[in-house]
Amino acid sequence: MRVGVFAALVFAVSGPVLVLSHFATYDAPSYAAVAWALAVGVWVARGERARSRWWAVLVGVLLALAVLLKYASAIDAPFVLLAVAATSLGDASRRWRGLATSLVAGSTAVVVLALSAATWARPLVEGVIDSTVRRQSLAPEPTVQLLGRVVGDVGPMIALGLLGGLVVLRRRPALGAVLLVASVAAPLYQVHTGESVSLHKTVVLGLVFGAPLAGRLCAALVDRWWGTPLVAAALLVSLLHGTSVSERIFTSWPDTAPLARELAPIVESTPGIRIAGENPEPLQYALREQTQPWQWVSTYDGAFRYAGLSDLPAFERALADRHLGVVFLDGASGIGRQLQPRMSDLGYTRTAVVRTPDGEHEWGVWQPAADRPAD
Hints:
Elements: H1 2-12, H2 15-20, H3 27-45, H4 53-69, H5 77-86, H6 95-118, H7 122-130, H8 143-171, H9 173-193, H10 199-221, H11 227-251, H12 257-269, E1 275-277, H13 281-286, E2 296-298, E3 305-306, E4 309-310, H14 311-320, E5 326-329, H15 334-339, E6 348-355, E7 362-368
Parallel strand pairs: 1-2, 1-5
Antiparallel strand pairs: 3-4, 5-7, 6-7
Helix pairs in contact: 1-10, 3-4, 3-5, 3-6, 3-10, 4-6, 5-6, 5-9, 8-9, 8-10, 8-11, 9-10
């Protein structure tokens, strides 16, 4: 019980978790499903008496749900199954129960995902392939820099997890090894790809496994008279560090509220208008009542195709044809930086310059010149 309480505290005060819990995205419920799958699976494998195999089926359904909500969670699914199997290896009376639970859960997850891919999720499969196997890095950074960001985001939690892993390894080496590897697998994989976008999200995937290790360390320390103040100090440092990190991550994104206010009357007065811009997702969410997803066009590499063209040539042709009714640019992408100085030549007029409240970020808003009719 104490292990779970301390693990929850360490997890809840980490900066990336605080950030994810603030947004209405699929990340949080997906990671919650991974955590529940791990908890239920271990509960079934370590039970005092054999529990119904339906609980193992539930573990598989939870894993499948996690992947369907956020495909990046797939990297954690094998580690959940390994942890469930490893949790009872040291107990001869339960050893086969853990393995059986893992096998049933894994089979269930595969069946649910396969059926989904063959039916209602078939149109999504190509998108998943494009954003994984064929994906090009949107914001590449050197490995050392990415590792520094991981340590900067969850340094205290990493330290607690590693020390907790040593405690677990002494008594249950298989489980300790699985949890230690799982706690770093997702962030290290992203570091390997060189991608900096959403790095804090994969860090949370690692914390799902690292937090129980930290919880085990804290539970062991509070049994000693000198351990309680040490644990209290560690949790306080984690809380202060987490709130600081969450503020840094949150404020690293420009405040798009002024831009949303500028675009609102344009999209309301011209229903169905095509809207192109850099990092359009916050605007798409803010204007979700006035627009449809198909109206939005982003400047990410590989994201836009028009007239048989893609990327910059596609934008040049679409602008020349007045296919895009309003464009907002801030130079955040390579395509955006190339388009900014050429918008006038392509027949567009800058109708507004929008700045964030702190004045540190600005967008140019462009619309077709009035002297030329749009398509």
